[in-house]
Amino acid sequence: MKIERLSQDKIKIFLTFDDLLERGIQKDDMWREIPKVHELFSEMMDQAYSELGFDASGPLAVEVFALPAQGMVVIVTRGKMNGSSEERTSDDDDADDEIYEMEVTLEQSDIVMYSFRDFEDVIQVCRQLQAAALTEDGRLYAYNNKYILALEPALIETSRHNAVIALLAEYGEATSVTYAMLEEYGKVIMPSEAVKEICTHFFN
């Protein structure tokens, strides 16, 4: 579980599928109101407080983004509290169960995204993807001093999907950036057919 602060009132939590499995939670459970998910959220907020000093009391907007092959990104935004903290602590013990007032938004993206530290790694993975006839598609972005290759699974044969992921993982790492964040804050280097374009420029 990785936690980082995006602003004074906003944090980002990246959960791998291993993080979920360790807690007995399946990917689809995040869409359900079950005790395990509440326990996970409490654990995330405790860790956010201990690592970042992020106080999660009061109303919270929670956005959950499911990423294929990577895990989940949870964006937590703290809202303004109505009333004083004295009013909250004067409630009975049952209030502990409702300490987080959450408005949860869920979004699932099928787009596969991997980040690379060096452009040379991008060149090599594109060469391998083309040589294995896995895909020539893709969009290439620059974001946070890294290169991110985004692939649309619909344009990859289902039977070859795992092979694509394996190659990407060999040269890069799964990114916790959501596609929405990438579109908003990333710089587009190649808007389409990135694998083909890179191979054309560097190997022909």
Automatic annotation (TrEMBL):
Superkingdom, taxonomy of origin: Bacteria
Molecular functions per Gene Ontology: protein-macromolecule adaptor activity
Coiled coil: none
One Pfam family matching this protein: MecA
Record comment regarding domains: The N-terminal domain probably binds unfolded/aggregated proteins; the C-terminal domain interacts with ClpC.
Record-stated family: Belongs to the MecA family.
Xref: NCBIfam families: PRK02899.1
Known role: Enables the recognition and targeting of unfolded and aggregated proteins to the ClpC protease or to other proteins involved in proteolysis.
Subunit and interaction comment: Homodimer.
Name the UniProt record assigns to this protein: Adapter protein MecA
Species assigned in the record: Paenibacillus algorifonticola
Lineage: Bacteria, Bacillati, Bacillota, Bacilli, Bacillales
Protein encoded by which gene: mecA
